[in-house]
Amino acid sequence: MTPADIEPSGAPAPEAAPRPLHLILIDGSGFIFRAFHALPPMTRPDGTPVNAVFGFTNMLAKLLKEHVGTHIAVIFDAGRVTFRNRLYEAYKAQRPPPPEELIPQFPLVREATTAFGVPAIELADWEADDLIAAYARAAAEAGGQVTIVSSDKDLMQLIRPGVEMLDPIKQKPIGPVEVMEKFGVTPDKMVEVQALIGDPIDNVPGVPGIGPKGAAQLINEYGDLESVLAAAAGMKPSKRRDMLIEHADKARISRELVRLREDTPMPLPIDALLQHDADRPALLAWLQQQGFRSVVSRLGLDAAAPPPAAPPPAAPVPTPAAQADLGPAAPVTPESGFGPYETVVTADALRAWVEAAVACGRVAMDTETDGLDAMRARLVGLSLATAPGKACYVPVGHEVLGAQLPLADAIAVLGPMLTDASVLKVFQNGKFDMIILSRAGFPMPAPMDDTMLISYAQEAGLHGHGMDELSQLHLGHTPISYDSVTGTGRNRIPFSQVPIERATEYAAEDADVTLRLWETLKPRLRLNGALALYEQVERRLVPVLLAMERAGVKVDADDLRRMSVDFEARMAVMEQDCHRLAGHPFNVGSPKQLGEVLFDEQKLTGGKRMKTGAWGTDSSVLQTLADQGHELPNRVLEWRQLAKLKSTYADALVNEINPETGRVHTSFAMAIASTGRLSSTDPNLQNIPIRTEEGSRIRRAFIAEPGHVLVSADYSQIELRLLAHVADLAVLKESFARGEDIHARTASEVFGVPMAGMDPMTRRRAKAINFGIIYGISGFGLARQLQITPGEAKGYIDRYFERYPGIRAYMERTKEEARIKGYVVSPFGRRCWVPGIADKNVAKRAYAERQAINAPLQGGAADIIKRAMVRLPAALLAAGLKSRMLLQVHDELLFEAPAEEAETLAGVARQVMESAAVLSVPLVVETGVGRNWAEAH
To answer: Which Pfam families match (predicted)?
Structure first.
């Protein structure tokens, strides 16, 4: 099993340290309808429809496993008629009644919630969203954290410090940044925007002709709905102006309809929502009554389950599209053919498995460990599969009674096969397993295949690539869960303490599933045009990243501690400045106290109260005030940024130092980003600020070993070069060929000013447009960035497109390709799927369109640097260098080299990286050398 497929194991929480309040509120109605429309019809043995119940059950089970809070509730709508119908008779009047086959499932869904031990809450005359608002407010005011599990835009108005949303399908948090990206406003202004837009689904009238973009523009310009309506008469004559005047009353009633009532009565106190384990016998009985055998198996309830009185009918397999819409719910096919498996505890028995692997020329492998950090975890056992249904588990490090194979014997028997070129070794997330095996003393496996990367090369962005999800999607099989083997919460045990018999069932199945996935997915590579990408780039990158992770990078722990002290001292000075500017001491980290200082005491304009009555003080609010010249909000922003860097890097990096190596070993994730870009975790090195003094200070803590230096090699403006290439922009290609300052050239072309002696501000504006165009920046976004009016920013963008019409053509061509195919293709053949490109929601579709435009550029940049990385080890070896590659961050590679090799290494790296691809513009790599990363960068 790999980090992509299991949860971290942990020691039981100490009794004396109760966890702070964390309330999880689940939008039950959203779960029900998503499940009903995603899954095909299903019935339980007595003929009752249960497809929505089945989907809801899977989604709830997964949520309980992965997002554990201290308190939890599922919130339901009690009925179709609420107080809003008295405010506006037509509210939701056009909604058709629920489908006939869904009606009997409503009470069953509530039964499912109760069976899992979760409170089910509803209240007549109130909507579920109002209950969620009331509970969120109460928990936040009590100092707790709230997670609202929903992607419903109506709930986004509740987001604030301490309250966030979680998209249950994408498994991604939704906070102020995401709301701003989708709707162009902060969460506290969502009500105002929705009042203008209306909602045809719920029959909320709004103002005809005003969509999300126009509404955001008006609210950002005037502040709130009433201000917009008051200003309408003085607006330039237009249809929009006329509509605002004519439909002002409808906008006001719309605001009342969409505003959630945080004063809604709460049927249960928060204390009654304390999360606890389900009554397993009762849950088992309920699941059996519904015929949900796969859920019973995945939850580990089948060991004690008596056979059901009659088998539930086989249900159809959901289509891939339905599966993707529902998310990670289990398929509904009968499960068979997985196990029983063999436990191997003697060398002779293991030799028989090796002989079988050699005979058929391939074997699937998996490792089990006592942790998720590949550089610290200990090997507990490994599994092999030579044919579907034929797999074994080899325990070597369990801490329980039972025969095991000595590790030395396992190495002696398996070692020759691991290096046998005639035997293909198949892994799922093989980089992790190979590090574990190598650290345990096994030779490096070769040749190898990786089912995670085989899937990723074909369908990046379409779904996840963990083993469980791939098994459900392609095999119709839900593997045994890690929780069912090790337990959960306080009762969880490390895998080394799992009884060997149970470990065999779990671990051998992983190898079996991996082999079946390989047989299913590998032949599709050629059909999907991804064979070259997988074999020449992704698979070849595995040993390169493995070597980088094992090498790690040295950090100066003393410097980090000094940095932490320095940051803390600077924060203290900032706090004193904030107190001086406020006229008295207050808690700078308290949004509530800060809001009182800014808006109650200092009477600054532009403040907005949240539903709790407290003033909103998120970064957008503070930035607006700072842009107006107010010193206190600017100082608070600086304090917040420094506090984040202190906790994320200055303090955390010291704890990441491996005690065995004295270095920090990040883990490179290969199958996350839809564009093919690598990401890093533990620590995440992608988020260190690039152009700030603090970012440079953090980089100074990354140092070379004595007698060595760090060498940085960074692609210059690679995405702009790719834009010039794919959009065939003659002017930009000429400029790149001449080595001109591309931002000055753009400023000259767009603003009609000479390049010589150009004003730095003009160049900065051109630079913002150049990079903004790649990411689909709007006029509002550019206006905020350059501190100009939206109209002025839009004028800049319009002139840019007039001068470079090829960019507009490329954008439209790319969006159309995404709409037709569901994906776009990088210049090197990588498919980047864009699932939301056909979404009926305008904001979601617009976001997907921006992704589609940018994906070929980011994907192309990822392909180029990966091509260089797979070629560099051989180039360094050929040059006789002892230097080694340590990190890949964005478009930069970082090396550690003996001081005398630095100049030669820089030349080799530059030559390999600049020749990694042939474009219609030159690739340029800038190099630097230093004792630390900041000097080299």
So the answer is: 5_3_exonuc, 5_3_exonuc_N, DNA_pol_A, DNA_pol_A_exo1
